[in-house]
Amino acid sequence: MKSDIAEVEAVVWRYLHALHVGDVDALRQAFAPGSALYAAINGEATALAVEPWLERVQNRKSPEASGFKSQNRILSIEVEGDMAMAKVTSAFPPKRFVDYLSLVRTVSAWRIAAKTYHAEDIPAA
Predict the structure, then answer these.
(1) 0.85 surpassed by pTM
(2) CATH architecture designation of domain 4-121
(3) pLDDT of 42-62, one tens digit each?
């Protein structure tokens, strides 16, 4: 029997891989219905429902298709009962992202309920 951490880790890796290759169907399966993405942009809190975000992902060239090697990493995972938090990092040059993923255990699987993220420019080498 898989541990909760292993199950959450598997979902998070699927999310990171799908993000890197631009697999919108896999991303849709990773998120719970009604999920949203949150960030502070120009000092203002912003929210975006998952479906409009998925349309953006679908209509852009993926990091993989752009020739970028995956820099995805899981930095931490914590599980408490039916909720979990994962901190991950990824890159889509010229930006590097840190995501905090809030997950909930549903009847069928762990799903991402919310994504809060920070984006910053990758320093020139």
Answers:
(1) yes
(2) Roll (3.10)
(3) 899 999 999 999 999 999 999
